[in-house]
Amino acid sequence: MPTVLREGPYRFFFYSSDRAEPPHVHVARDESVAKFWLSPVVLQKSSGFSRVELAKVESLIEERSEDLLGSWYEFFGS
Questions:
Q1: Long-range contacts of range 49-58, CB-CB < 8 Å, 24 or more positions apart?
Q2: How far apart (Å, rounded) are the C-alpha atoms in residues 68 and 52?
Q3: What is the DSSP pairing of strand 41-47 with strand 3-7?
Q4: 4, 8, 19, 40 - which has most CB atoms within 10 Å?
């Protein structure tokens, strides 16, 4: 599970088994986790994050969406 970005307390990563799914990124902070689709940026599921924090994370992903998509295609190869 490669980490593709660290921003403040957040770690953004992929699971290598996620190849068959559309591009997305997982986000973790302490025991909180979330999964966001990347194109367009949409929350798929979350656990432990408040709505306010999810909005902040979503904003970070939107700001970095091109880089995250590039990392997805570099890692998964298509």
A1: 53/29, 57/10, 57/27
A2: 22
A3: unpaired
A4: 4
